[in-house]
């Protein structure tokens, strides 16, 4: 390449670079200001740590007990990620849950996925007035009527900094909640 060709291309390259900088500066100015964590976001830190769990599921008159572990970590200042593993004999379930707080909706929001199926659970919920119990509600496959959907509720009640009680319920045809799973977690780290 001759030096004359380099000189001819320099203004075009400078023009492209200037245009790119102008676009980038405009986009950067259009971004919303960085969000500040609210009291609700800070409350989620109660989950952080390693937990040993015991869960009792009811199937008719039969009760099934599972033990497991949960490791909970904050993702930045806005989300807690709960990684769960539970076992019953050779049967193992692995699940992931993300919980945050939407300042737009003024509700806690979250998702749940696990190894038992391909459905992604989407939660919305609220915190009790005394800030000890988080109630999350989701629509999901009806366990009693395949092909239909039902309304479910998970409640996390912090009895102390190192103990949480969990209750899972389904809304019955009469509108009342029916508990089908109860559990507890004790912080080990």
Describe the protein.
This protein has a 10-stranded antiparallel beta barrel. It has 189 residues and is α+β, with helices and mostly antiparallel strands. Helix content is 17%, strand content 54%. It is built from 2 helices and 10 strands, in the order ααββββββββββ. The mean pLDDT is 89. The protein folds into 2 domains: 1-31; 39-187, Calycin beta-barrel core domain (Lipocalin).
Summarize the structure in short.
This protein has 189 residues and is α+β, with helices and mostly antiparallel strands. Helix content is 17%, strand content 54%.
Task: List its salient traits.
single chain, 189 residues, alpha+beta, Lipocalin, 2 domains, ten-stranded antiparallel beta barrel, 2 helices, elongated
Give the topology.
Layout: H1 3-30, H2 39-43, E1 49-59, E2 62-75, E3 79-88, E4 91-102, E5 107-114, E6 121-127, E7 133-141, E8 149-160, E9 163-171, E10 177-187
Antiparallel strand pairs: 1-2, 1-10, 2-3, 3-4, 4-5, 5-6, 6-7, 7-8, 8-9, 9-10
How many domains make up the coordinates? 2
The appropriate CATH architecture of the largest domain is: Beta Barrel
| Spatial strand order of the main sheet | 1-2-3-4-5-6-7-8-9-10
Q: Count of helices? A: 2
Query: Roughly what is the average pLDDT, rounded to an integer?
Result: 89
- Kindly, what is the distance between the CA atoms of the first and last residues, rounded to a whole number of angstroms? 65 Å
Radius of gyration: 24 Å
Give the oligomer, counting copies of the same chain as homo and different chains as hetero.
Answer: single chain
